[in-house]
Amino acid sequence: MSEPLLRVANLRKVFPGQGTADDLVAVDGVSFDLQQGESVAIVGESGSGKTTTARIIAGLETATDGEVLLDGKTVAGRGIGLLRAGRDIQMVFQDPFGSLDPRQRVGAAIEELLAVRFRQPKAERRARVAELLEQVGLDEQHAGEYPRSLSGGQRQRVAIARALALQPRLLILDEAVAALDVSVQAQVLNLLIDLREQLDISYLFVSHDLAVVRQISDRCLVMNEGVVVEAGTTADILDHPGQPYTQQLLAAVPRPGWVPSRRAATA
Description:
By secondary structure, this protein is of the alpha/beta class. It has eleven helices and ten strands. The strands form two sheets. It has a six-stranded mixed β-sheet, with helices on both faces. Strands 2-1-4-5 form a four-stranded antiparallel β-sheet, with helices on one face. Helix 3 (about 105-115) packs across helix 4 (about 120-135). The longest helix has 18 residues, at about 180-200. The chain is globular. About 40% of the residues are buried.
C-alpha cells in the first residue's frame, strides 16, 4: 500500500491538574493511518478523547507526545502548537454560527480566504465564491446574506464552502451534522458524500452517532477514555463488534419501536 495521506503515531495528550495525580489523560497512544480519498470516523461518547485527537491533527492543540504526519512529514506533535500543513487540513465544527463572523456577509467570509491564500484578482475571487456556494447547494444570493439570516443547514454549508476554499486534502468534521434536524442532516451528509467523490478529498469524521458513521465512513476507530479500543471497517465494527464497549454503544442506539422507560419518561 502507498504512503498514507495521514499518519497518526502514538498520540498522547495530558491536561495538567493541580498535581500529577489530578492530570487528565485525554488521549493515550492513539495511532492510525488514513489514505488519500478515504473517510475514517472516530466514534465514542463525550469525553472519549475523539475531539481532542481531531484538534491535535488540525493543529488546534499541542500533543504531549507522539506525532502527526502528512505525506510522511511531521505537521503536528510534541512542541508543535501551530499546524504546518497549511491549507491541506481544514476543520468544520459542530456549531457553524460560532465559526462565522456574525458581522460579515457570507461572500466576504469566503473571499477573504481566497485573497490571503491565492492572491487572485477580485473578479476571479468573486467567481470562485459563486462556484463554491453552488458546490455546496447554495447560490450567489446567499453571498450577500449575514449568518443570522440563514438556517442551521445553510450555515453549515457555508462553513463547508469556506473550508473547501483552501482546496484541502483532508477535511476534519467534528460532529458536523449533530446540531441539525434529521432531514437537514441527511441532506448535508449526502452533500459530503458527493463532494468526496467529486474532489477526491479525505475525511476524518468525529461523531457519537453510529447511524451517521455508517453512512459516511469506510473505517472507524472506537475510543473510550482516550484509548482506541477497536478499529476496522465500519461495516465490521458496527455489524460484528468485538469489544464490550462497542457493543454497549450499539445497544444504546434507539431502534424502531423503542420507547423511553417509565423512569426516563418521568425524569
